[in-house]
Amino acid sequence: MLLAAAPQEGCALLLGRRLGTSLVLQRIWPCCNSWQPQEERQHRFLLDPREQLLAQRWARERQLQVLGAAHSHPSSDAVPSASDLALSCGPALMLIRSGRPVATPLRAWWLPDSAGWSGDSVEGASPAALKPRELALELVPELELELESRSGEESPPGSGPGRLGE
Question: Distance (Å, rounded) from C-alpha 17 to C-alpha 118?
Fold first, then answer.
């Protein structure tokens, strides 16, 4: 689904629950990349605020929450770029799918907020506390298929959870 937008960056919202120190990703809500100007969508993405509100309402009705966002890097590694970090706000989960033939094309990152809040403790505003932290990623087959091949459905996809944690 994230690579379907290539050569532009694809994007989606990540819906799920917290279970202790783990995040359980239960639904992937595909979104349109609405970055302007369009010519920059090969290395930038913007989630439409209306899509975000719809996803939040849908998730709330099902006792889920928006955990973060996913996007693709069509021609670079699955590591948050300086732009990703500057334009995101935490605490949030960030999944990145590389379009390059690399050993680990899908990686998960935890982004603390600007005060160093990690979601379960205050780490302080030290530079180390503000850096994204890579999370272990365990995909169930159904979720892996969605990340790889889903495109353009009206209802949010997702049939099985994926765990993200330490």
Answer: 16
